[in-house]
Amino acid sequence: MRSHYCGQVTEQELGNSVTVAGWVHKRRDLGGLIFVDMRDRTGLLQVVFDPDFADMFAEANKLRQEFCVQITGEVRARPDGQVNARMTTGKVELLAKEITILNRAAPLPIDYNQQVSEEQRLRYRYLDLRRPDMNEKIQFRARVASAVRRFMDSQGFLDIETPMLTRATPEGARDYLVPSRTHKGKFFALPQSPQLFKQLLMMSGFDRYYQIVKCFRDEDLRADRQPEFTQIDIETTFMSAAQVRELTESMVRSLFLEMLEVDLGDFPVMAYSEAMRRFGSDKPDLRNPLELVDVADLVKDIDFKVFSGPANDPKGRVAVIKVPGGASLSRKQIDEYTAFVGIYGAKGLAWMKVNDRAAGVDGLQSPVLKFFPDAVVTELLERVDAHDGDILLFGADKATVVSEALGALRLKLGQDFDLVSSEWKPLWVVDFPMFEETDEGFFALHHPFTAPIGVSADELRANPGAALSNAYDMVLNGVEVGGGSVRIHDNAMQQVVFGILGIDEAEAQEKFGFLLEALKYGAPPHAGLAFGLDRLVMLMVGASSIRDVIAFPKTTTAQCPLTDAPGVANPAALDELGIQIKP
Amino acid sequence: MRSHYCGQVTEQELGNSVTVAGWVHKRRDLGGLIFVDMRDRTGLLQVVFDPDFADMFAEANKLRQEFCVQITGEVRARPDGQVNARMTTGKVELLAKEITILNRAAPLPIDYNQQVSEEQRLRYRYLDLRRPDMNEKIQFRARVASAVRRFMDSQGFLDIETPMLTRATPEGARDYLVPSRTHKGKFFALPQSPQLFKQLLMMSGFDRYYQIVKCFRDEDLRADRQPEFTQIDIETTFMSAAQVRELTESMVRSLFLEMLEVDLGDFPVMAYSEAMRRFGSDKPDLRNPLELVDVADLVKDIDFKVFSGPANDPKGRVAVIKVPGGASLSRKQIDEYTAFVGIYGAKGLAWMKVNDRAAGVDGLQSPVLKFFPDAVVTELLERVDAHDGDILLFGADKATVVSEALGALRLKLGQDFDLVSSEWKPLWVVDFPMFEETDEGFFALHHPFTAPIGVSADELRANPGAALSNAYDMVLNGVEVGGGSVRIHDNAMQQVVFGILGIDEAEAQEKFGFLLEALKYGAPPHAGLAFGLDRLVMLMVGASSIRDVIAFPKTTTAQCPLTDAPGVANPAALDELGIQIKP
């Protein structure tokens, strides 16, 4: 029904007869002629209807926005002054000779050129997706998926499907449950990830596995969460952490080169401890030049408990962020930042303006200056390399609170002071603590199948708090785009980890018996990683929500305004499943 | 951890030092040496341990089946007489220099060389999948998926994901339901196919869509059914039925060439009516030379109601299958075939043996011969081209019964008489009736979104029974591997079809309101097709069940012996979902 896509009709076709099929994007009547921008997925093409062809012109006169039409015509150069350099097809136009209206369109319920509510956009998603901007984002995503597959195929990875109807997974989030009809009263769970299955595939000898796969979490949603999301899931056998990183880094690098013509270069590798120390975050945004500087050693003897307390507490932290130009902040602005860090549990935000460093203490302005001996002030200014016009912002509290509060403040300051560079800044974060210790016991920082670094099962049991895990996160511009680890392939080690996590033998057997059993039969060393495809694509296209890179997303209340899902179930169906709705 | 895969070590590596990692497939102790067949996903490699290297030999002596090991050694030629021509690595062996036991294996619960129950195979699936035969099948499947994707990519198709949590789909089978937590008392359904979403994608202007996607049906299982199965799902805009067939046929043809070095040639296209007439089936196995021959016109006046009744009934059918060599069938064998057609509702199976055609009626043997005038017999033998030694088997009943019974009998006879050729025999079946008329009304033979051929909405409403649908099934060796259609893109036509199917306006609005709405805004002509990937791969690898080409399938009671899914749900989780198990 077409000889060319709209976007393919360029000067090379001058004088040729071409047929296009698509939609009326815009119609203008001008000087007795009708101009139509025809649209398909490749772009726009200007079509001109001349009243000299009377029948056709009468038909063209019926055209309204979003009519679906087929047009045959002759390609000619646009008159001088009408050339549009921003369009691929901007030098030509199609002089229509024949037109067939394939389908009419009622007036649109949403206006492409106006801000429309998210609800309306999702309800009329098929129209929303016709907007060139949205259409291109979804096309881009498809090309990303294709490029990923080509790369993985070239590296000998096998695309193997894992079950969607499976057992509750131990990732910690809430599972979506699926009642079983043949086993009444029992439930499948939709996978939060194919974690255990991909490990089993390595034990089956498939060596290199990948899958672009839907995963499910029934959590309360945020802007970048969806009930169902897509992972690029990878697992390898006989490869070290560094090898997995090298391979997946090279995948992402080639993806950016191919899709965006951006060379990400080699990714720096940073220990978790360094990331927390310098950036207060395990996913630091390196586009932001601000850093946290530790000063506990300077203030541990001063006569100001707010600082000296945490400085002398092994679990405390005192750190400072220096903001160039920040001395201009008003009292009110500082109060706003104080309220901001309060969200993260900080009880205050001490500050020090550097108005005239050469003037020594006299050139400073700070409510806490009186507590600082001159020598300490000198050393402090030295350490943060303060210049006139800077402000120093202090955090002093438990280390977790300081890191989190200043880490968040750093990002906010980066935005407010326009310090964030426009480069791409990837890195690897490694050497995570194996466990997080809380009052309720140990929790796995990654998941319970992550191997520790360089300790035996006995050593791990003896001192779990000190162990580092052989995990790695890929961070891009402050967003965790992927994470993975070397897995435990030793039955004894796996049992010790379950034990540390407070999973007793009966529970381990009940939940993970099949894994423990599988580890008895020559399970190979294996390691892997999973990328969040939605987030990766969102970053690449510069979208502000993953909803813009998913064809049919749900709302933040996990609902679909288009199909009106979830819906009421047939009572007979529930009967067959042996369940009922609670009164 | 390796320099080579096991299967890569050939004569080209003679004298080289290589490192392999994998599993002990078999160990033999012979002449003071230890021989180990090392296995990875690429195949087997013979490794020799020599007692001259004492430490290593002691370590090798610990090896048992399925130990996971890393071995470095020197590649040398196998001694004369030990060459194994059937193995890629059969001319060489690895003289071990270093060995590291990566993981030990307990004695296996399943024996690779013995027949093991399906239940045990699935319970220890990770071991079952290590068997070279099974491992290769899953690897083959991955390569098929990859080849399909490469083909679709090359044709400009976009891989776009559709939702898994969606609204009940109208395909007719039972849905898997997923209770919603945020909308208590309501349910998502897992998709039986992405049918409506792919149509919406065409309305969104994506032009060419494909997806290799999980679909779900909660049906009682048979050998070739699974609760979750995988479709190669395809949809196109502005393409005719013939173009969709050409494109998908060329995909399958290139797949067979690439994977099996088989040229399927051009697929014949056969009308549904011809398929039913000649083969009694809408998915005829063309490897089987037997055909049904209609003889109603010959017997409509004979004095035998069993034949003349159906012959004079517009809904009746009288047909015959001629089986070369069938005259040798015993009375008992004929009785067995009679019982067999009884399964399909046939009330009997009249037969006629052609012992000596030259002898005329005297050369025949049949309980019904007495009802046939000589002239009719002559014409009958002429029409079926009977030869000495043939048997004719008759079906006379309602057309549906005769077609189904003789269609099944044809397949059975083909097997029993070893008539089925070993070629690949694809074809397209087209021109299906739009509706099936039953006492309870009209049913869609495909699905309610299938367009009719060459009638307007009004003409369709006037005579639904006569309409043909613009649908097409791809059949390979008697298996329907794919099916599709041109879809309705016209709101009025869609409403008429819903009306004929007895879906009233309120129900149509409730169930398909969003589709009817979408059809108002310039929906383009579109058409598509879906392949059953599991079945296609099963055929290609010659497996007898789709379970053998699925890494982690369910049993016939929709259960997973490996993970023990479905499992008991946490009562608190059910509480949150607002559902309870029926007492």
From TrEMBL, chains A, B:
<feature type="binding site">
    <location>
        <begin position="532"/>
        <end position="535"/>
    </location>
    <ligand>
        <name>ATP</name>
    </ligand>
</feature>
<feature type="binding site">
    <location>
        <position position="487"/>
    </location>
    <ligand>
        <name>L-aspartate</name>
    </ligand>
</feature>
<dbReference type="GO" id="GO:0005737">
    <property type="term" value="C:cytoplasm"/>
</dbReference>
<dbReference type="GO" id="GO:0005524">
    <property type="term" value="F:ATP binding"/>
</dbReference>
<dbReference type="InterPro" id="IPR002312">
    <property type="entry name" value="Asp/Asn-tRNA-synth_IIb"/>
</dbReference>
<dbReference type="InterPro" id="IPR012340">
    <property type="entry name" value="NA-bd_OB-fold"/>
</dbReference>
<dbReference type="Pfam" id="PF00152">
    <property type="entry name" value="tRNA-synt_2"/>
</dbReference>
<keyword id="KW-0648">Protein biosynthesis</keyword>
<comment type="similarity">
    <text>Belongs to the class-II aminoacyl-tRNA synthetase family. Type 1 subfamily.</text>
</comment>
<feature type="binding site">
    <location>
        <position position="480"/>
    </location>
    <ligand>
        <name>ATP</name>
    </ligand>
</feature>
<feature type="domain" description="Aminoacyl-transfer RNA synthetases class-II family profile">
    <location>
        <begin position="141"/>
        <end position="553"/>
    </location>
</feature>
<feature type="binding site">
    <location>
        <position position="171"/>
    </location>
    <ligand>
        <name>L-aspartate</name>
    </ligand>
</feature>
<comment type="subunit">
    <text>Homodimer.</text>
</comment>
<dbReference type="InterPro" id="IPR029351">
    <property type="entry name" value="GAD_dom"/>
</dbReference>
<keyword id="KW-0067">ATP-binding</keyword>
<dbReference type="InterPro" id="IPR006195">
    <property type="entry name" value="aa-tRNA-synth_II"/>
</dbReference>
<protein>
    <recommendedName>
        <fullName>Aspartate--tRNA(Asp/Asn) ligase</fullName>
        <ecNumber>6.1.1.23</ecNumber>
    </recommendedName>
</protein>
<dbReference type="GO" id="GO:0050560">
    <property type="term" value="F:aspartate-tRNA(Asn) ligase activity"/>
</dbReference>
<keyword id="KW-0436">Ligase</keyword>
<comment type="function">
    <text>Aspartyl-tRNA synthetase with relaxed tRNA specificity since it is able to aspartylate not only its cognate tRNA(Asp) but also tRNA(Asn). Reaction proceeds in two steps: L-aspartate is first activated by ATP to form Asp-AMP and then transferred to the acceptor end of tRNA(Asp/Asn).</text>
</comment>
<dbReference type="InterPro" id="IPR047090">
    <property type="entry name" value="AspRS_core"/>
</dbReference>
<feature type="binding site">
    <location>
        <position position="217"/>
    </location>
    <ligand>
        <name>L-aspartate</name>
    </ligand>
</feature>
<dbReference type="InterPro" id="IPR004365">
    <property type="entry name" value="NA-bd_OB_tRNA"/>
</dbReference>
<feature type="binding site">
    <location>
        <position position="226"/>
    </location>
    <ligand>
        <name>ATP</name>
    </ligand>
</feature>
<keyword id="KW-0030">Aminoacyl-tRNA synthetase</keyword>
<dbReference type="InterPro" id="IPR045864">
    <property type="entry name" value="aa-tRNA-synth_II/BPL/LPL"/>
</dbReference>
<feature type="binding site">
    <location>
        <position position="446"/>
    </location>
    <ligand>
        <name>L-aspartate</name>
    </ligand>
</feature>
<feature type="site" description="Important for tRNA non-discrimination">
    <location>
        <position position="81"/>
    </location>
</feature>
<dbReference type="GO" id="GO:0004815">
    <property type="term" value="F:aspartate-tRNA ligase activity"/>
</dbReference>
<dbReference type="InterPro" id="IPR004524">
    <property type="entry name" value="Asp-tRNA-ligase_1"/>
</dbReference>
<dbReference type="InterPro" id="IPR047089">
    <property type="entry name" value="Asp-tRNA-ligase_1_N"/>
</dbReference>
<keyword id="KW-0547">Nucleotide-binding</keyword>
<feature type="region of interest" description="Aspartate">
    <location>
        <begin position="195"/>
        <end position="198"/>
    </location>
</feature>
<dbReference type="InterPro" id="IPR004115">
    <property type="entry name" value="GAD-like_sf"/>
</dbReference>
<dbReference type="GO" id="GO:0006422">
    <property type="term" value="P:aspartyl-tRNA aminoacylation"/>
</dbReference>
<dbReference type="Pfam" id="PF01336">
    <property type="entry name" value="tRNA_anti-codon"/>
</dbReference>
<dbReference type="GO" id="GO:0003676">
    <property type="term" value="F:nucleic acid binding"/>
</dbReference>
<dbReference type="InterPro" id="IPR004364">
    <property type="entry name" value="Aa-tRNA-synt_II"/>
</dbReference>
<dbReference type="Pfam" id="PF02938">
    <property type="entry name" value="GAD"/>
</dbReference>
<feature type="binding site">
    <location>
        <begin position="217"/>
        <end position="219"/>
    </location>
    <ligand>
        <name>ATP</name>
    </ligand>
</feature>
<keyword id="KW-0963">Cytoplasm</keyword>
